[in-house]
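[SOLVED] Need 3D model of a two-part complex

Original post:
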Amino acid sequence: MAMVTKRIPCRSIARGVAQGKVLISHDAISFLGNVDPKTGIIVEREHDLYGRSIKDRVLVFPHGKGSTVGSYVLYQLSKNGVAPSAMINIESEPIVAVGAIISGIPLVDRMETNPYEMLEDGAIVKIDSQNGYVEVLYE
Amino acid sequence: MYLTKEEERTLSGEDGETLQKAIEILVALGDIYGADRLIPIKSAQIAGVSYKTIGDAGLEWISDLEGKVKVPSILNPAGMDLVRWNEMGITPKFSQKQQKIIAAYEKLGVTPKCTCTPYYLDNFTLGYGDHVAWSESSAISYANSVLGARTNREGGPSALSAALIGKTANFGYHLEEKRKPSVSVTVECNLSGSDYAALGYLIGGDVGSRVPLFFLQNEPEGDELKALGAAMAASGAVALYHVDGVTPDARKMTFGKPDENIIIEEKQIRGVYDRMPDEAKRGADVDMVALGCPHCSADELAHIARLLDKKRVGKDVWVCTSREVAEHYPQFVDKIERSGALVVCDTCMVVSPASENYKLMMVNSGKALAYVPGMCKVPARFGSIEDCIKEALKGSGDTDGNGN
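Solution:
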């Protein structure tokens, strides 16, 4: 793993600063139904992260989908200590945005470089949504 | 998005964590949808109430908040009648969780009136151009379309945030240019009563989240517009519609007729009444008749009371309304309940788990027809209010649903 420092500007949706290992999903996520709120494990068989834990990861996914109850599920994940440390969307929508804010999980979208082109599973990144950037620390 | 000094202060956390989160939600949604600023609201109607829908996740979040709402705020229907839950077949465990949710909202200064028809409540009226943050889909449609007020489709947390801040982000249906129609719907036959629910049920999918402008043969009344809007918001995502020459925006604003025109004929409307779920084709009998989706108005209660007067129902019948309307009209409630039907307050057939106990439901609502099969796992048939009462009287010896 090589140390690098690349700072990519992005849009801030939920404020906060966090650091963690990237977990990439190409599928939209419905937090209600796709994720077990007790364990943070993706339980939807059709999902590309099926069986993986999102706990403490910087979760990269295109956008949320499904029921608005998903916002509360993010809160539950957070209270159970199994929430992602931060989230990066291509384009955020209200369910994940609201869920991230009420749970205190930093959320950004619209990175100036497409996260799917520059981030890989396991890379270590810092999300600073106070100042609006994603910083790649190790890749 | 522009924020005042006071709003910046709240966002920086100087007014406490609850208000900080609340304004952060409003600002995030405003940024996502391109709002220029926050605007004051007159009232809030907050979704995320039934324990069946929000579960422990929602209960935990609401319970952790602190502070008081800044504008009159009420709630969406709960999962049960808050007083007579036992008569509906609700378990004590569910009841306990539901009461906790209501108490958590009350602690925040929210009035625990649980209804999808807030516009019938005393001191909750709306005027043309009033900005509000409502979140029950049929109430949103009625506020925007029939009353000419302005609201987006708020989610539970965003409506509560708006209530706590007393403002909402200025985008979408708060802006005049976003209220213009983008599709026409021409109805070629006369409509009355539940025909409007059938029309809404039919058209919602095609209209999606656009703003339709209706050209009708005759002039609908308030309850008919309520049924139309509720059905379209359920089978589609319609938050605002106009009826040429009838609804307030259609009379006050000038907009052209959209190019795309959907034509609806009488046989399509009739088709909704004739639709039979597989269970009914296989001979299943209706074992529950549910009226009041959205919650009954005083006129609708009076009509049902007339149809059930001195009759006896042979099946379970729910007549759903708000507690306040029921309390204002005890004479109608009394007549309805003497027939054996139940006047259910604070809840409805869609959000209460008690409706899951039935095999086949009959409804006069396009919204219930759209939601009951998926959300309650109960197949549903559609009929007029008279058809529904006729069905309700079967098996009791009183087979005449016309009040004769």
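Edit: DSSP finds four helices and eight strands in chain A.
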